[in-house]
Automatic annotation (TrEMBL):
High-level lineage: Bacteria, Bacillati, Actinomycetota, Actinomycetes, Streptosporangiales
Coiled-coil regions listed: none
Record-given protein name: DNA-binding NarL/FixJ family response regulator
Alphabetically ordered keywords of this record: DNA-binding, Phosphoprotein
Record's keyword annotation contains DNA-binding: yes
The organism of origin for this protein: Streptosporangium brasiliense
Length: 210
């Protein structure tokens, strides 16, 4: 059973989602709230849901990225939904900790499919944003060489430096040099990463790791 909570001030949407989910096996609406604070308060009674669906723009005027960060700090997995098909905003909310970004022009079946991807620890986003997401080369996303990328992915996925070197077909000293180059590129891009955990976060933010 997958449980979902929703932060949205559109009561008609929430009522429609609740009615539709009543006929969907394996998925249950656990709690709702018009604000992040209201949702967290409701979940204190109902229990934490597997995924929180968060509307990008709420009537309380709260900052979307702050909302994502607050939910993530509370240990929630967040899927942002919006009427705005913005690749730039999608990147920002994922870097703030969200697990995906879906535009509201999709039907409820598509929404639940994306929820399933988030539960599976993937990053979910609208198909129309995929090309821009994957091909993005904005200033804060460094361009890595194939060797740098191979070592980064192996190391950030949990391997030791020696194992990452073997996976990439290079010596440990060479792998270490590649990682130092990767760290330097992220530092120059304004997104420093000094530890293995931080490198893994950067790789996920840039769509290199699931």
């Amino acid at each position: 059973m997958i449980t979902i909570s929703v932060v949205d001030d559109d009561q008609m949407l929430i009522d429609g989602l609740a009615a539709w989910l009543a006929g969907v096996p394996g998925v249950r609406l656990a709690a709702t709230g018009a604000t992040v604070a209201a949702l967290l308060g409701a979940e204190a009674e109902t229990g934490e849901a597997d995924v929180v669906i968060l509307d990008l723009l709420l009537a309380d005027g709260s900052d979307p990225l702050d909302n994502v960060r607050e939910l993530v700090r509370a240990g929630r997995r967040v899927l942002v939904v919006s009427v705005v098909p913005s690749g730039d905003m999608a990147r920002k909310v994922v870097r703030a900790g969200a697990c995906g970004y879906l535009t509201k022009d999709h039907d409820l079946a598509a929404l639940i499919a994306r929820v399933g991807e988030v539960v599976g620890e993937g990053v979910a986003y609208s198909p129309e944003l995929a090309l821009g997401w994957l091909s993005d080369r904005c200033a804060d996303r460094p361009t890595l060489s194939p060797q740098e990328r191979a070592v980064l992915l192996a190391y950030a996925s949990g391997m030791t430096l020696a194992a990452a070197a073997r996976s990439a077909g290079v010596q440990p000293g060479t792998a270490k040099n590649y990682l130092e180059r990767v760290k330097d590129k992220y530092r120059k891009a304004g997104r420093p990463a000094y530890t293995k955990l931080e490198l893994a976060v950067r790789a996920r933010e840039d769509g290199l790791l699931p």
